Amino acid sequence: MNKVILKNVRPFIDGAFQTPTTMNLVEGRWVDESIEGATEIDAKGALALPALFALGLDFQEPLRDDIYTFQNGYTAMRRGGFYGGIYESTANPIDNVQKLSAIQQVFSKSGLHLSILGAFSKHHMCEQLSEMLELASCGVCGFGDGNHLNATTRFLRLAMEYGAMTSKRFFFLPLDLSLRCAGCVHEGDVADVLGMKGIPRIAETIVVHTILETALFLNVPIHLKQITCSESLNLIEQARARGLDVTCDVGLYHLLFDDQAIFNLDSHYYIIPPLRTPKDKEALWDGLKRGVIDAISCNHTPVLRQEKEVNFEDAVAGAISLEVALPAIWSTLVDHVGERRALDLLSFNPAKIASAMPQKIEKGTIVNLVLLDPKEQSQVTPEKLAGAVRNTPLLNAQLPSAIKGSYIHGVWTQV
Length: 415
Known about the structure:
The strands form four sheets. Strands 1, 2, 3, 4, 5, 6, 17, 20 and 21 form a nine-stranded mixed beta sheet that branches. The longest helix is centred in the middle third of the chain and has 17 residues, at 202-218. Helix content is 30%, strand content 22%. By secondary structure, it is of the alpha/beta class. It has a single domain, classed as TIM Barrel, CATH 3.20.20.
């Protein structure tokens, strides 16, 4: 469906939502003239937001297409209002140009803008460097660790030193695997009460410090994924003051929940890095307000139902979020930082981090948008989630707003 007339819609233009108007959309473009044969939709005052850009996408295919497929991921993105995102698969590292070319061909048919992170080491093992120069010349947006950084400090230096020749950004999930060990929750009072092995803050902060110092020494731009505590934010601020180009994000669920949520032993709250304390959650919200945190990450990780419907500590970590992220966070986010900053965190800044083109809504131009009713509640039912996975802590929850549809690359998706 590429011809749509949105009536009584409030588009985001020049930094603010406008009064209700009519948008004639044809072949992805907002045009002045009326359109014959178009589908008319009464938005009833809903907001037309620039489509979102996702950080932290992993659709598992081809190695684990029994869990999720590329098509499932595309569907979830359109339902959630995402026109693009950064893709990095733990199971399928892009460590040579043949793999990159293959996945580029797959993504070229998606109708979405999917930027690809190349692996800076072969198989994400941090033993041999990947073909970073070739990967950069063929179109990766940066280099990642596959959310599994097990590098020695020397290997980290070698990787950044080689990668610096490409001017691409390095992406790291800062988590010391030896300090994590078998931990699955935050090391603190809740872990003690439940008798679970915990992951201390220093498992993050030690790695953050090492990465920042190495990047400063080599003058390499970096991005730190899913920061969870104030100590890490302080280190990032200090590195910026010393001249480092460093960006960072926070996970969606780290803003919505803290470790109190795991008292019910629901394995859907088992994510890595772990949910930390209420005080840590407050620090993350403060980091958003002060501009220390650049973006909100989806960290969309599908997990089979049978791998979640087990004891908490035996479950596989991870949660999906694409379909629920916007309606779950929008109202609270706007209350904390305002509408413009909210869109920076969900759309504009993630695109800039990926060196992609941020979206704008302007008459006469190509537009990608998501239609959101901030006053209508919506329930997260299994039918609204793509594929066969259901691993979100928001399953069956009532969300404070509702996505009505998205218009992305000329295709209208009704939700």
